[in-house]
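sanity check this:
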Amino acid sequence: MGEYVLGIDVGTQGARVLVCDPRGAVAARADHPFDLEAVPGLPAGWAEQNPADWWQATTLCLRRAVQGLRDRGLSPEAIAGISLTSTSGTVCLADEQGRALGTALMYSDRRAGAEAEEANTAGSALIAKLGYRFSASFSLPKLLWLARHDPARFAAARYLLSPADYIVGCLTGEWGVSDYTNVLKTGYDLVAGAWPAFIEDALGLPRQRLPRVVAPGTPVGALSDAVAAATGLAAGTPVLAGMTDGCASQVSTGAVAPGQWNSTLGTTLVLKGVSRELLRDPLGRIYCHRHPDGHWLPGGASNTGGECLARHFAAEEFAQLDALALQHSPTDVIIYPLEKPGERFPFVNPAAQGFRLGEPSSKAELFAAYLEGVGYVERLAYDTLESLGAELGPEVHVAGGATKSAPWVQIRADILGKTLLAPQDSGGAMGAAVIAAGGTLYRGIVPAARAMVRLAAEVRPRPELAAAYDDRYQRFRAACRARGYIA
């Protein structure tokens, strides 16, 4: 068996490939963007991509990664396994030979709102069992929309796939296989381990076209001779089932065991963790994926995040203001940094508005207050999770663009009262590599992550500021209560 693993991430804007050794050191990497104008002229709220573009970009990345290995004197036969990740909620139709039938409806496509409500009515028992509701971003409503509005194409489809399922099929020739995480938004019953009857009986969608479901890290097939010839990889290399992009990113930070949590902060804030028990939320703020070891992966996403900085400050100001942030924190300005109406976590309120209490004395203080505001939302999110029964440890694994700001990481650690752990390499491709290692080099993703996730920073909260931040956080909570956002 080889000693390296390869992870593929087919994201919204492009494909990425990463090869690393059993200790997580990167041996080769490559990326290639998509043509985001490839499907022009769509109505407002629609979003589509061409699956052929996913595969072309993936092939190019694999070829470049193989060349990177060869440049280091390594053979592609050193790769023990391949796994991958892609967007959750995107749907692709394919025929008997695995050929994509037209464009894919992306996770961000909003056309299936009415179908989502129909799925919620038909699937009410599943919703009560798993504790989440279907929305237009989910796969099942999109499939129902296609069956109703594009019946000829839907009737010609043998396989109803996620992007990850499609790429696995392209790599191996094995079609119609998916993993626990990629089927949640298609309505798979993660407790019973089966496709529920309402999908066919009430919605009319044929269950036999839905994929066979396996645990992440399960071998699905072997790399085909044709793909090996096109990429330079070794034919027969094992290809293992992956996870959604959010779950793979969580794995890449090392938050893989019960009580471990990850915050990914970029344009928005996403929290994901591991729970021994299924967390059900009657208000629909979170949903739970299934961990390959049988645990649960609860998570939620806020509409707040780094977007607030881009809205209120010029890019050329960031470095200077960031360097001054710790001098001004904690500020006396309380901000909920919501830039557009509507919030989905830590509370659900489609009419919610951001707010600011107090006037900053300078632009630098305002900048620091925005950093704190995101930290208050993050703390409220973890308090919400704890109220639902989540087990929280003394550390939080962090990722996303915000980790480039050392002051922001410190402020978040102070507000949360937890040590923040930032990995050297994070993201979907790294998570996919860890998943591949869990099914080949290690006995599961927990030992694989412990061996492969390498820390770049460990930031502890400053105890002398705990009381000051607790006071300001309570003022933040009171302002949210006054607006009816939280009880």
